[in-house]
Design a protein that fits this description.
Shape of chain B: elongated
Strand order of the largest sheet of chain B: 1-2-3
Number of helices of chain B: 2
Helix content of chain A: under 10%
Largest sheet of chain A: 2 strands, antiparallel
Number of strands of chain B: 3
Distance between the termini of chain B: 23 Å
Radius of gyration of chain B: 14 Å
Number of helices of chain A: 0
Helix content of chain B: 25-40%
Structural class of chain A: mainly beta
Strand content of chain B: 15-25%
Order of helices and strands of chain A: EE
Oligomer: heterodimer
Strand order of the largest sheet of chain A: 1-2
Order of helices and strands of chain B: EEEHH
Strand content of chain A: 35-45%
Shape of chain A: elongated
Structural class of chain B: alpha+beta
């Protein structure tokens, strides 16, 4: 699965991964 | 916790020992947000329960382009609710460690 990473200027790392389909609420 | 449309969960097992904990946040209901979230991926990050505040992280998420400025309160509240739950559990399950 594709992971992207964003590092904020203050140093915190945010790793973005796909949300498992089961967790996305049907809107 | 109130349903803000933004979900925050533990991204790792919490044993109550470390002051920092990995959390994962994602948008469950985009309609509840004022701005349009960048993408609906799950954003994993580490949060220091002693030194940081949910508002710090929410602001950093805005600055990193994940959310619109107008949603900083919703994001911060969602993190705050989960952090409060973690601390509440820690005080009951591992009071000696505190």
């Amino acid at each position: 699965n594709s992971l992207t990473q964003v590092v904020h200027s203050a140093g915190r790392r945010f790793i973005v991964s796909p949300v498992p389909e089961s967790r996305l609420r049907e809107s | 916790a109130e349903d803000t449309g933004v979900r925050v969960e533990l991204a790792e097992e919490d044993h109550g020992r470390k002051s920092s904990i990995a959390l994962r946040l994602w948008v469950e209901d985009p309609k509840k947000l004022k701005g349009k979230p960048k993408d609906n991926g799950a954003i994993e990050f580490t949060f220091d329960l002693e030194k940081e505040t949910p508002d710090d992280v929410a602001q950093e998420m805005i600055e990193s382009g994940f959310f619109h400025e107008s949603d900083v309160k919703i994001v911060a509240k969602s993190i705050r609710d989960r952090v409060a739950l973690i601390q509440w559990r820690r005080e009951r399950i591992w009071p000696i460690v505190q």
